[in-house]
Amino acid sequence: MKRIFVPVLAAVGLLASDHSGVRPRGAPKDYPAHGSAAGFTIAASVVPAGKVKHQLSPNLVKAGYTVLEVAVYPDPGKEVDVFPGDFTMRIGSNPNVANAESPAMVVRSIEAGKRVDDPQIPARVQVHGEETIGVSTGGRDPATGRRYPTSVYTGTGVGVGAGNPGAGDPSPADPRYPPGDPRNPDVTGGAPPQATPWTLGDKLAEKALPQGRTVRAVAGYLYFPEVSPRLVNSNDAYYLDYAGSNVQIHLTVPPK
Description:
The protein is mostly beta strands. The protein has helices at residues 49-55, 58-62, 103-113, 200-207, and strands at residues 33-37, 40-46, 66-74, 80-82, 87-91, 98-99, 125-136, 139-140, 147-148, 151-162, 212-214, 218-224, 238-244, 247-253. The chain has a domain at 11-111 and 199-253: Sandwich (Immunoglobulin-like), CATH 2.60.40. The protein has 4 helices and 14 strands. The chain is elongated and about 95 Å long. The termini are far apart.
């Protein structure tokens, strides 16, 4: 008898992103705050400002963002839909509530709040004088018909160039030849291409709480914008609220 094998779809297709977030701790009790409802547990801790500066960016702290590490632990056999937008936070007795922001929203907020600096002159700027000497061969003024004699003229000017050409610097490109033409010098100086550095958005997305359906524990960062500093001090607790899928969980997260 011919045996038929029916492939079983792995649960991976339903899971939140595998390549983002942070490693969840061994159990919810390993976090300073945790609470359960409807077949899953949420746990949380505050990410210290020093760690935020080191892992993400000092600009995040400067802009007043609070970062919480949040983990979601489904019960065995349960699936949970994880959406960062289901989380809100307030601090101490301050009634203002902050909604968790996506990495893209955080970047836009920080960029919009940056002070526009005055234009700066590049550090490697060269200023040099130029002199021109020429000979006018004379001719006739077309308006008056009068002749003017041959004469010598001079001119001066100032040129500004960025950079500091030296023996090791490449020659400038020759505009007569297209890029890549062997008759054109290598304007890169033969240096290998540099890797594109990670942007702030890349870093925030890499550490963010994974979004989507999951059957296993996941963890990551939630980014909350600054609330009014009124009634807020370093000893106030953080109140994290989850409201999703007709379930509500309230956590009191200590500041340290």
